[in-house]
Amino acid sequence: MPRPRKCRKVCCMPQVSVFGPKGAGDTEELLLMTVEEYEIIRLIDWMRLSQEEAAREMGVARSTVQRIYEEARKKLADCIVNGKTLKISGGNYHLCSGGEMCGCPRRCCPAHFKQKQEEKLETNKQEVAK
After folding, report:
1. Distant-in-sequence, close-in-space partners of 7: CB < 8 Å, separation ≥ 6
2. 95: which DSSP letter?
3. Which candidate, 19, 44, 48, 82, has a CA 20 to 30 Å from the CA of 116?
4. 3-class DSSP state for residue 103?
5. Distance between CA 74 and CA 83 in Å, rounded?
6. Using only C-alpha atoms, what is the Rg of the chain?
7. pLDDT in tens, 75-86
8. Angle between the 51-58 and 62-82 helix axes, to the nearest 10 degrees?
9. Cα distance between residue 12 and residue 22, in whole Å
10. Pairing mode, if any, of strands 18-19 and 85-88?
11. CB burial of residue 120 (10 Å; 0-12, 13-18, 19+)
12. Residue-by-residue DSSP string for 64-88
């Protein structure tokens, strides 16, 4: 019997859940992306976190993040190259409340993002000065 899937922590839902070619009708091919695939893309590509940092953020192993990230990138490429519509929904996740009990720093908060970017800039400056 396979091990039950671990519920993944997601900071926030996407503001827009359907993307597709402009002017496409109802007959276009629909590709589904799970909410946790969206979260991985958001953390790694938009927030510029490493896979290890994203794994800590979601409460899963780095190898899980790597697998989910690979699938999400394939889906994005398929949509862009072949003009398919992408819909984000479903998956095995729980939304982070942002409270202290869950330990989430709310990385989707713009103030937190700005603080993390400033910390990375400072670290880079220190490394260059060495």
Report:
1. 92, 93, 94
2. E
3. 19
4. coil
5. 13
6. 17
7. 999 998 988 899
8. 110
9. 26
10. antiparallel
11. exposed
12. HHHHHHHHHHHHHHHHHHHT-EEEE
Single-letter amino acid, residue 1: M
The encoded tokens of residue 61 equal 């192993």
Q: What strand order describes the sheet that includes 30-33?
A: 18-19, 85-88, 30-33
Tokens for 104, please give them.
Answer: 């989430």
Q: 29 and 85 in contact (C-beta within 8 Å)?
A: yes
Selection from 35, 36, 33 nearest residue 80 by Cα? 33
**Interatomic CA distance for residues 123 and 7, integer angstroms:** 33
Residue whose token pair is 């190259």: 81
What pLDDT digit, counting tens, does each position of 76-121 carry? 999 989 888 999 988 777 676 654 444 445 445 544 555 666 777 7
